[in-house]
Design brief:
The chain has helices at about 1-10, 135-140, 160-170, 175-195, 205-220, 225-235, 240-250, 255-270, 275-280, 290-300, 305; strands at about 35-45, 55-65, 70-75, 80-85, 90-95, 95-100, 105-110, 115-120, 125-130, 150-155, 195. The chain has about 300 residues and is α+β, with helices and mostly antiparallel strands. The strands form 2 sheets. It has a 7-stranded antiparallel beta sheet with strand order 1-2-9-4-7-10-11, covered by helices on one side. A 4-stranded antiparallel beta sheet has the order 3-8-5-6, with no helix packed on it. Helix 3 (about 160-170) packs antiparallel against helix 4 and helix 5 packs across helix 7. The chain is globular and about 65 Å long.
Length: about 300
């Protein structure tokens, strides 16, 4: 109580709550959790996972680090993904140093030495999920986050909702919680792959250009009609715009434009009385037959078939 009173005086805006957690398999919380936190919300599923399981979430949560937070480990018993939501700090993985900032994501695992030190004036708020399984290392490699590596996601908060859902599902403690959390973890890895951005100082200008063009197409897709028009309004050569999308999006900008148009059109066609020809014109297709072909190629059924599902 005296320690809490002291911290409240030092950080008057901080709200203290008891650490929320679900029961850990086999007893108390694991000893690898840091005590240098002001607030935490954690769950525990199974601290002794089967060595034969393909993928199993062990525990996870979110921690508001104290200004003196510093953790040093020569190894770690499980695989782990950590995500910085707020604050900053310094990270060392197997001797390689990295700066932590909002959007930083890093992984560690057995045999990976790690050191995490927060910035005292801007303490870390970080999410984590620990897991095990025969397929864990391969899944990490598949999302470009092999054990002992660092990545950056953009926007910085892009993956936070999945972490929040992991925590909610873990804390519920139902019979299905382990399976739900494993599936959410697999989805989280895909989301990290989809949202990866260059680390600071590496291709940042090219990525910023891609992001600006992506956002521009997202805002103006209804009136844009072609790749050349999109490139011209982004003040870029069409070939260079395609190369940017191939590097960071793995699709062409024209494919993105068509997907946005068709997704919008699908929503319009759900309205009572909607006419295919009118929706085609609204989304920039002069020819309704071309609109129908594109619609079916993207969604797998024709516009008229969709209207029959209303």
């Amino acid at each position: 109580m005296a320690e809490t009173t002291r911290l409240c005086r030092t950080y008057p805006s901080l709200t203290f709550v008891k650490t929320a957690h679900s029961p850990a398999a086999g007893g108390s919380k694991p000893d690898f959790f840091s005590t240098q936190v002001l607030q935490a919300r954690r769950f525990y599923l199974n601290l002794k996972p089967s060595p034969k399981t393909r993928l199993q979430v062990v525990c996870g949560g979110v921690e508001h680090c104290a200004p003196d937070y510093a953790i040093r480990r020569a190894s770690f018993p499980f695989y782990s993904i950590e995500f910085v939501a707020q604050g900053g700090g310094r990270l060392k993985l197997n001797g390689a140093e990295h700066e932590l900032q909002p959007g930083s994501v890093f992984s560690c695992g057995p045999s990976v030495a790690q050191e995490i030190i927060t910035r005292p004036r801007h303490p870390l708020v970080k999410y984590f999920v620990d897991f095990a399984g025969t397929g864990a290392a391969r899944l990490l490699a598949g999302c470009g986050l092999r054990s002992g590596t660092v990545a950056q996601v953009f926007p910085p908060m892009e993956i936070q909702p999945l972490f929040d859902e992991l925590i909610r599902s873990g804390l519920r403690g139902t019979r299905r919680s382990p399976e739900i959390c494993s599936r959410l973890l697999a989805g989280l890895m895909l989301k990290i792959l989809d949202a990866r951005a260059p680390l600071p100082g590496r291709e940042t200008l090219a990525f910023a250009t891609y992001q600006q063009c992506h956002d521009f197409i997202g805002r103006h897709f209804l009136r844009l009609r072609s790749l050349d028009e999109a490139a011209r309004e982004c003040h870029l050569d069409a070939a260079y715009l395609c190369r940017l999308f191939q590097r960071y999006d793995h699709q062409t900008p024209y494919r993105l434009l068509l997907r946005l148009k068709i997704n919008f059109a699908a929503g319009q066609l759900q309205a009572p009385g909607a006419m295919v020809k009118q929706v085609a014109e609204q989304t920039g297709f002069a020819n309704p037959f071309h609109f129908s072909r594109v619609f079916k190629s993207i969604l797998g059924l024709s516009p008229r078939a969709l209207t029959r599902l209303r």
